[in-house]
Structures are given as structure tokens and as C-alpha cells.
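batch job 7 of whatever, protein = Pectinesterase inhibitor domain-containing protein
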Amino acid sequence: MASLSQLATLLLCTFFCCCQSDLIADVCSKATNPSLCTQVLKSDPRTSGADLLGLGQIIIEKSITATNDTLAVAKSFSGGNNTGAVDVCSETCIDAVDDLHDCSQWLKDFDGSESSKSDLKTKGSAALTNVETCDDAFEESGGEPPQVKEASEKAKDLIDVFLVVANSL
């Protein structure tokens, strides 16, 4: 009898892991950067057992970190012709982080209504636009340093994953 219960437990664990992998694969297949999405979500132990709302919270946290990293890298280029771009980038990255914090709170209170979904998509899109504005500011000031571009691409790709989740709710 013990071996039958062990077999049942093994089958349930296999099914659960398979379904979790399927959720991550489904979300990441729709992302702009599927490999980054898969790497980030599979490397976080909290994704084990997470539903779509849980994945959303995790990816928001990762997006906030990446956006703050973009801000830090951009600030390292202050001075000279980049001062205006750094100021714009600072302001828009801070706004993006605020938008992402709003998304996190709204996910906690998510009720499944169309207005809740719309609010998440709107705020997520605003965060993405804010990071894109950082890129634009550097381009207009004579060119975006590769380090800023790399950091902002990661932030935008992670915010895009959040938008995939929001669209899947």
C-alpha cells in the first residue's frame, strides 16, 4: 500500500511540475524575449507553485529591479552633453517604478473584472513607455551609451513579460 501512495504522490508532483513548466512556457512564448523570460522565471524558486497572479508579482519585482538598474547606469553618464538625457531618464525611470508598484498593488487586489485588467495593462504600458522615453532622451542627446541601452532593454523585456501576464488574466 505504501508503494501505491508513493506512486500517487510522484504522479501528482510530476503533473504539478509539468503544469508549472507549461505556464511559464506559455507566458514566455508570447514575450518579446522568450529566453530572458524563461531564464528569469525558472531561476526564481517562488515560481514553483505560482499561478498567473503569482508570476505577475514575481515579474513586477524583477522589472522594478531592472528599471532601477537602468536608472543607476544612466546616472553614471551624467555630465557633459548627457545631463539633460540623464535628467529625463531619471524622471521617467522613477515614474516607471511607481507604475510598477501600482501594478503590484492592483495584482494583490485583482478581482478579475475587465476594469482591473484594463488598469493593469494601462499602468504596465505606461511603465514600458517611460523606459522607452529614457532611451529616446539619450538618442536625442547624441547617442545612447551601450550600457544604458543594455540595461533598458532588459527592463523593457521584463515589463513586456508583465504585459503578457496582464493580457493572459
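notes: Confidence is low (pLDDT under 50) at residues 4-19.
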